[in-house]
């Protein structure tokens, strides 16, 4: 039986020039002399081929994120943290991307959610002069990269909309190097920058919006080290809508007279599964990966998490939240996920199972792992600060493996079984997470409160201006996530590309 198939495409030249051709090599050498190939070396080190025909956006973004050395904060495979297309599933389900591709706006959303600093421009929001300036800037350094969204037809290539990073620039010929992630189809190639602008200045029929380009760079600190929002659970749509739309309406009532009432209104009406929406992030690794003497990287990340936790617990809002949760009248029937799962071994068992799923490559599938036992330990090596470690044994029916979870904590008193210097402190609990959630709500959430004094008291409690830089960044990251998730839920990410908050 005959089998149809395609093996590559002949690159239409002109207008493009094959990077590996004699002319392409000469352009490369000359561009190096101009100093506009500095970004190329990082990108080429992480150059990848899109794994699906419609994954050009995901492949371009994961390539750039890895080139910028942005830590995804979760494992890829084995013990390795690494951006892969399969991990970019926040703003659009992977199955939908596989079938339809991804829009420009949702790729911008993904870049934000991945922790990058992003500036995005459609061609009707910029000029070719600005585009050239950005290409030169990113090509002259290795701390920012440009991803272009363009129409292949302008280059006489087959296909329609496409994403690829720009790997360099030739000032003399005014040409850009496209590192085409569809390497099974076309090789990297040089194109006139003016023609690339024309290819971007094209309307995407799916969104009705023009294409454009993203500037992706590394933030000065990785956000979301302790708290994060998740849209990988079906409940996120309802929770985001409740927080952004319903809470302001609920607070617009005459009987809202004190802070306790405000907190009660917000919390007692929360959707049942809101605990799947906001999480605190724990580090997990296999026990057989080595001994548990922590690396300098692990110590640094844990120290930041612990400082964020400490600063949350020092806020005035935390005291109000804690008082409400401990009140006999709170009756938080809608908050079992956070209130009743503050037991550290139970939390660790859940995290161990999640870690086993990620390490096995089965993340997102039906639950196959169970944690048989957990053991809380305190490490205190070489006089360092005590570190809380929870070890668990996870089984999937046929095999089992040991996992360790690093838990941020702060010392308050001795724990049973440990010496006086090896103490478990306070680890992130429901009141910490709920305090972070309240701080992350946009300022306009509270404007419906009618009592002026109460309104000012609330603004004082939730203001980011009085927070330390570390906690302020953590809160603003959550706020950006919430804003982006809400835009995704409303299908508005392609209408507004502005940096949220």
From TrEMBL:
<dbReference type="InterPro" id="IPR007719">
    <property type="entry name" value="PCS_N"/>
</dbReference>
<dbReference type="InterPro" id="IPR038765">
    <property type="entry name" value="Papain-like_cys_pep_sf"/>
</dbReference>
<dbReference type="GO" id="GO:0046872">
    <property type="term" value="F:metal ion binding"/>
</dbReference>
<keyword id="KW-0808">Transferase</keyword>
<dbReference type="GO" id="GO:0046938">
    <property type="term" value="P:phytochelatin biosynthetic process"/>
</dbReference>
<feature type="domain" description="Peptidase C83">
    <location>
        <begin position="1"/>
        <end position="221"/>
    </location>
</feature>
<keyword id="KW-0012">Acyltransferase</keyword>
<dbReference type="GO" id="GO:0016756">
    <property type="term" value="F:glutathione gamma-glutamylcysteinyltransferase activity"/>
</dbReference>
<comment type="function">
    <text>Involved in the synthesis of phytochelatins (PC) and homophytochelatins (hPC), the heavy-metal-binding peptides of plants.</text>
</comment>
<dbReference type="GO" id="GO:0010273">
    <property type="term" value="P:detoxification of copper ion"/>
</dbReference>
<dbReference type="GO" id="GO:0098849">
    <property type="term" value="P:cellular detoxification of cadmium ion"/>
</dbReference>
<protein>
    <recommendedName>
        <fullName>glutathione gamma-glutamylcysteinyltransferase</fullName>
        <ecNumber>2.3.2.15</ecNumber>
    </recommendedName>
</protein>
<dbReference type="Pfam" id="PF05023">
    <property type="entry name" value="Phytochelatin"/>
</dbReference>
<dbReference type="InterPro" id="IPR040409">
    <property type="entry name" value="PCS-like"/>
</dbReference>
<keyword id="KW-0479">Metal-binding</keyword>
<keyword id="KW-0104">Cadmium</keyword>
<dbReference type="InterPro" id="IPR015407">
    <property type="entry name" value="Phytochelatin_synthase_C"/>
</dbReference>
<dbReference type="Pfam" id="PF09328">
    <property type="entry name" value="Phytochelatin_C"/>
</dbReference>
<dbReference type="InterPro" id="IPR038156">
    <property type="entry name" value="PCS_N_sf"/>
</dbReference>
């Amino acid at each position: 039986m005959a089998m149809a198939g395609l093996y590559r495409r002949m690159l239409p030249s002109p207008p493009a020039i094959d990077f590996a051709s004699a002319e392409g090599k000469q352009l490369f050498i000359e561009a190096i002399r101009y100093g506009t190939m500095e970004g190329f070396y990082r990108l080429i080190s992480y150059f990848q081929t899109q794994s699906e025909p419609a994954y050009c956006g995901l492949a371009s973004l994961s390539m750039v994120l890895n080139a910028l050395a942005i830590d995804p904060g979760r494992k890829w495979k084995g013990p390795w943290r690494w951006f892969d297309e399969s991990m970019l599933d926040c703003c659009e389900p992977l199955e939908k991307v596989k079938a339809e591709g991804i829009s420009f706006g949702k790729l911008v959303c993904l870049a934000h959610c991945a922790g990058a600093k992003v500036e995005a421009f459609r061609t009707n929001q910029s000029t070719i002069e600005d585009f050239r300036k950005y290409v030169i800037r990113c090509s002259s350094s290795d701390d920012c990269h440009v991803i272009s969204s363009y129409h292949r037809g302008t280059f006489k290539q087959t296909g329609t909309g496409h994403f690829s990073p720009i790997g360099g620039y030739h000032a003399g010929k005014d040409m850009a190097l496209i590192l085409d992630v569809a390497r099974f189809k076309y090789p990297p190639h040089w194109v006139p920058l003016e023609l690339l602008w024309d290819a971007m200045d094209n309307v995407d029929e799916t969104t009705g919006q023009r294409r454009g380009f993203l500037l992706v760079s590394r933030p000065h600190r990785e956000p979301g080290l302790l708290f994060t929002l998740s849209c990988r659970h079906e409940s996120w749509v309802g929770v985001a809508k409740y927080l952004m739309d319903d809470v302001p309406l609920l607070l617009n009532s005459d009987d809202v007279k004190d802070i306790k009432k405000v907190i009660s209104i917000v919390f007692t009406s929360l959707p049942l599964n809101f605990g799947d929406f906001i999480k605190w992030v724990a580090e997990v690794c296999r026990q057989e990966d080595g001994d548990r003497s922590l690396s300098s990287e692990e110590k640094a990340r844990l120290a930041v998490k612990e400082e964020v936790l400490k600063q949350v617990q020092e806020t005035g809002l935390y005291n109000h939240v804690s008082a409400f949760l401990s009140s006999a009248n709170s009756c938080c029937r809608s908050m079992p996920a956070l209130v009743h799962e503050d037991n550290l071994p139970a939390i660790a068992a859940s995290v161990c199972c999640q870690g086993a799923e990620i390490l096995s490559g089965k993340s997102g599938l039906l639950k196959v792992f169970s944690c048989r036992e957990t053991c809380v330990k305190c490490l205190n090596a070489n006089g360092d600060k005590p570190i809380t470690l929870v070890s668990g044994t996870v089984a999937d029916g046929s095999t089992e493996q040991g996992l360790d979870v690093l838990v941020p904590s702060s010392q308050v008193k001795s724990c049973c079984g440990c010496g006086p210097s090896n103490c478990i402190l306070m680890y992130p609990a429901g009141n910490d997470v709920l305090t972070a959630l309240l701080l992350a709500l946009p300022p306009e959430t509270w404007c419906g409160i009618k009592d002026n004094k109460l309104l000012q008291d609330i603004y004082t409690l939730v203001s980011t201006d009085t927070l330390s830089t570390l906690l302020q960044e953590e809160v603003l990251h959550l706020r950006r996530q919430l804003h982006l998730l809400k835009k995704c839920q409303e299908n508005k990410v392609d209408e507004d590309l502005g940096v949220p908050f």
